[in-house]
Amino acid sequence: MNSLATPSLDKRWIWTATIGLFIFLFIQVFPVTGQLFTTNAQNVLTRSEAEHKALEWATDRFGIQSEQVVKTTVTHLSDSKTTGYFSKYDLGAAYEKQWSKSSPTDVYAVQLHLRENAGILLLSLNMETGELVSWQHSNAVGSFSENKAENAPTKLATHAMNYASFWGIHPEEWKWDGRSEENGKVSFLSTKGDIGQSQLWLKISVPEGFSMTASSFPVWQGGSVTYGVNLPESFVNYINNQERWSSNLSVFGFLLPQVILFFLAIIYTGTHGGYSTYRRGIFLSIVFFVLYAGYTFNIIPGLRAGSWDAGVGIPDNVNITVSIVTYAVMALLTYFSAVGGDGLWKSMGHSLWPRWQESGYGNAVLKSMREGYFLAFILLGAQSFILLVLEKSLGSFAASDATQSMYNMSIPLLLPLLAWCAGISEELQSRLFGIGVFRKWFVGGARKLLGRDPSHRTTIVLTVAAIVPPGLIWALGHVGYAIYPVYTRIIELVLMSFLFGWFMLRFGIMTVIFAHVTLDAILMGMQMMFDGLPGDFAGGVISLFLPGIVGVIIWWLHGAMRSRS
CA dist 529 to 48, 203, 525, Å? Predict the structure, then answer.
């Protein structure tokens, strides 16, 4: 049972990897780059630039000086339902032409917390130009002032539009929809034309005391000028139903099974730890926790965007605490999965994970890293092809998700580190331990049923069957992504789990970890290269080579430390 004697990639694997890479480039990369070149995409403001721009608007339009601002927060917000609607019905070009400049679906929402309990002024900026596209003020307790103007409805609408014109709204682009809401807001519809069956609306709340000639800085306390999109009721109901399914599947299909697997991992660590070592996985579990904890602090605005989207104002410190505790539990699961999984496979006569103490460990890491790149190309091609087929057959489409946005990261260049979190935890939990425990059950059950060891062919069939349950649990853990219908990701990742499982069984756990990390690092690198933020293109290129750099460093460290001993 030599853990270092794993088979190498032959020409068939290399040719398959080459084909996979070309499929990925033609399906996912070239269409994006071609679109960028044809639409003259602009660069996106950084978070600090958006904050600086918001303070300028606060002074120029609201008469607020910087010393009146206690604290600022910058959050990327996205209208997920609207982007999903445009994606599903291929209306992106119409949106870019009609609404994107003055009423973008994605904005930087900059909160200015004002002194002396003066409330919060929320300024929404165009992410590319920094233009002020909407704003609203809340008082110290977070409510909005009502419009007290006692006018006839048509005069009230004119009064509201006169107020909005101070903030850059063009009256000729809007028509009153004939109603005023109970909270004093007056609603308008765009005259630019609908997009599909969607309508752009504007809502204006005029504070008491507003007069066209009163001041160069009109009264803004308690006022607001906001916009949004009316979508077809059938589409909204569809998305809401999909999100309920996603929530239920996440709880009952992923979280509860994960709790069960956690206890099973502890049990098998105790019963099979003797086949392995209790030091197994400690370093990787610590790396996972440290990276994810750092990621939590890096994406505090994303956590804030998620709580806003859910309609709750969860404080940042609560979001951080819950996330850190969650990742600590996941790190423990990763550790027990490493020890229990390694022990399980060794008890079945298979060693899938070399140890640092072995003389050839450094070379094994280098080999795993190199093979991981080729396997990642196969995975990228397979994933691209699966998603294309699902898009054409099921009508799958994606919406935006500000919780995972690059623009909600304090340091976007740290995104590639997240690839290591996913690669380490998911492969140790779902593949090493998950497949191991189900194979143990299936083969052991067949042995008891037959009264003898099952045949080699039966064992292979049972091993393939053992890939399905942990693969399904792993897939259900990803249904929270904004891809519809929600079973799109289930189908995609269950199919992908067969490849991951096969790769682990053939090449070992280190190779499949490198393959997973490289897969994610390439996808994240491509995302960075085209996100429009300054410096991220270079960061994206580095992301592509980062797994290779890490592999070389581990190889060098192992050799250096062994030469000293």
Answer: 20, 37, 6
